[in-house]
Amino acid sequence: MMLSCEYYDPFMQKDRKTKKLEQLKYKIIHSDEHHLVIDKPAGMGCIPDRRDMGRKSLLEHLLVDYPSARLVHRLDVMTSGVVLVALSTEAMRHLTSQFENRDVKKEYITFVSGFTAFEELTISKPVGPVLRKGETTTRRKGKDSVTQISRLRNFKGYSKLMCSPQTGRTHQIRIHLSDMGLPIVADEKYGGLYPLLSKIKKNYSRSKKQQERDETPLIERVALHAAQITYTPYKSDKTITMKAETPNDMLKFEEKLEKFA
Questions:
Q1: Count of C-beta atoms within a 10 Å radius of residue 134
Q2: Higher-confidence residue: 59 or 131?
Q3: How far apart are CA 96 and CA 93, in angstroms?
Q4: Which residue from 89, 83, 100 is spatially nearest to 234, judged by alpha carbons?
Q5: Residue 29, SS3?
Q6: Which of 77, 96, 209, 250 is 20 to 30 A off residue 84, Cα-Cα?
Q7: Cα-atom radius of gyration of the chain, to the nearest Å?
């Protein structure tokens, strides 16, 4: 059953450049007696984090109406898209085992800095443990990590990719792309830069008033979206695919690339 219910986060997140207040929201895109499928917005953490004092996590929101809710997997705070939630111990065990056996297929849409000459590519590099600053790297002694990549489109200075991780290491897609010299747009932690209109638009000019403040980036968070997930629900023998619509900030960024790059 598909639902279009929306829940609003009372925490008001400050916009990085303009300091305007933006209200976060998440969406339930599927619900049954055994599990939920959530479309999580960028900026909302999956679980409580002491560094996000005052900001309610997705799990905290869900527990209000679903006391037995347990996240089957997680997304980074600034990554948007599909999250699976189990509503019973049995459903949790069933869904978790599919992740462990690599039976779940996840697809992410992302924009990276750089031109991609390939159409299809598989990256197989071990990813190391998370470091003190929340970063990780490709390391010889890390855990085996595999990411399949498909090029969707090239723009001037940027590429749109579809990434399907075969393993679930922390920051796997982000570090694999960065290691290739294709950092995700606005992913400062791994070398990504904030995209500016002045860098892609010919004869770009700013008014005197605009020159008095920093140029606002075309997208202000890591350009990574968990677009869809394929799995087998609890007490079902049929594989299904759940999708989360591409968020507006990534759509608007692509529109600018279409127009100027």
A1: 11
A2: 59
A3: 5
A4: 89
A5: strand
A6: 250
A7: 19
**Hey, where are the domains in the chain?**
6-260
Where would I find the H helices in the chain?
A: 58-65, 89-100, 172-179, 208-211, 248-260
Q: Which residues contact 100 (CB under 8 A, 6 or more apart)?
A: none
Question: pLDDT over 90 for what percent of the chain?
Answer: 74
Catalytic residues: 76
How many percent of the chain have pLDDT more than 70?
83
Contacts with 81 (C-beta within 8 Å, 6 or more apart), sequence order: 39, 40, 75, 108, 225, 226, 227, 244
Tokens of 179: 């290691």
Distances (CA, A) of 201 to 208, 255, 256: 18, 13, 9
DSSP 82: E
Average pLDDT, integer, range 160-185: 96
Torsion-angle region of 210 (φ positive above 0: left; ψ -120 to 50: alpha; else: beta):
alpha
Token pair recorded at residue 152? 């969707």
Q: Which of 118, 179, 125 is nearest to 147 (CA)?
A: 125
Rounded Cα distance between 2 and 131, Å, is 40
Mean pLDDT of the chain: 87
- Residue 34 makes CB contacts below 8 A (sequence gap 6+) with 86, 87, 88, 90, 91, 233, 234, 235
What is the tens place of the pLDDT at every residue in 219-256? 999 999 999 999 999 999 999 999 999 999 999 999 99
As a CATH number, domain 6-260 is: 3.30.2350.10
Nearest to 84 by CA among 246, 232, 235: 232
pTM of the model: 0.87
pLDDT reported for residue 7: 35
